Amino acid sequence: MGLKLEAADLAAFLAREFPEVADDFEVLSAGEELAMRLKVGPQHLRPGGTVSGPSMFALADVAMYLAILSRIGPVKLAVTTNISMDFLRKPEAARDLIGTARILKLGRVLAVGDVLIRSAGSEAVVARAGLTYSIPPDRAA
């Protein structure tokens, strides 16, 4: 299944539909995998000099959402039904985070995928998330 939305389309969708969080994220690429940057700022940090779990959770969730939309089009009501996250190592507080989303299965009503999160410039995975999304029966935007 080919792409229905490119990186620029996904960024525009995020800015239009979710302006409250759009400034925190940058869509880097869309394709077999979707890459997204979380622009880490003071609001994402926790004591101990690390990026907070909720910030990493948000990166994983938004990256998978946009990866799915890149394949099915701008379906606003696709929703997370499950997420499991493994925190593997402490991310560097002074660096943005990069989430790479991969769709493992895209069905008519469910999508399953995973997201690997790394500190920008590093190959070491700091967190891994497995996600399941429910896709509404009517995919009209």
UniProtKB/TrEMBL annotation:
Q: Where is the Thioesterase domain?
A: 48-122
| One Pfam family matching this protein | 4HBT
Q: Which domain of life is it from?
A: Bacteria
Quote the SUPFAM superfamilies the UniProt record gives: Thioesterase/thiol ester dehydrase-isomerase
Name the InterPro entries on file: HotDog_dom_sf, Thioestr_dom
Q: What is this protein called?
A: Uncharacterized protein (TIGR00369 family)
Species: Cereibacter johrii
